[in-house]
Amino acid sequence: MSVRVLLADDQALLRATFRILIDSCEDMTVVGEASDGREAVDLARARHPDIVLMDIRMPGVDGLAATTAICADPELSATRVLILTTFETEDYVAQALRAGASGFLGKDVTADTLLDGLRTVASGDALLSPGATRTLITRFLTSPAPGGHLAPPERLAELTVREREVMALAAEGKSNTEIAGDLTVSPLTVRTHIHRAMTKLGARDRAQLVVIAYQTGLVQAGPPAL
């Protein structure tokens, strides 16, 4: 089965480049192109892509509003959003992660990194660089969103002790293999704990699990990166 990708970017040349790159892969195909957020939401609802590759800065309805709409739509629960961003838009990326985005990539990524990132998100994992994620979490995710609040620690009450351990290690940016080594269990066991925690907490994917881990205080953010 091919991974179905929807491109959302206001730059036609960039969309064309991404389409050529993605369509050259046997395991992926582009199912649509949107030039703004409103069109991205409409196309997502019409074509149900596996992934929306979303630029965050677009005219009219921006990528943040589009991500929020897509991730809040029950009929698009299987659609993941991968954010394309630059360093200057970290606050928007943090809001997108709160809204349910599965990760982010810089617009200066190599072709191989982009394709690997799409495959990672399609497999159900989050695309969160430990270094970049720690900076984002320290600066934005441990503070309430405007008009919002942090998640109460009681939200974790349904988790087992092992599920909390695995969730905390995942929030530190560790892979399933690394967590398995730390806990002396198999990667499959780690994946099972991750999915059980996601189900109990109503998290769309690993990215939201990371956000919840920090916002409930299960993991404490370190000092901001300089």
What is the SS-derived class?
alpha/beta
In the predicted model, the low-confidence regions spanning at least 5 consecutive residues are 146-150
CATH 4th-level superfamily of the largest domain:
Response regulator
Q: What is the overall number of helices?
A: 10
Beginning-to-end CA distance, first to last residue: 43 Å
Integer average pLDDT? 83
In CATH's first tier, which class of the largest domain applies? Alpha Beta
Q: How would you describe this protein?
A:
- Residues 4-122 form the Response regulatory domain.
- This is DNA-binding response regulator.
- The protein is 49% helix and 12% strand.
- By secondary structure, it is α/β, with parallel strands linked by helices.
- It folds into 2 domains: 3-127, 3-Layer(aba) Sandwich (Rossmann fold); 147-216, Winged helix-like DNA-binding domain superfamily/Winged helix DNA-binding domain (Arc Repressor Mutant, subunit A).
- Strand 4, helix 4 and strand 5 (103-106) form a beta-alpha-beta unit.
- It is globular and about 50 Å long.
- It starts with a strand and ends in an 11-residue tail after the last helix.
- Residues 146-150 have low confidence and may be disordered.
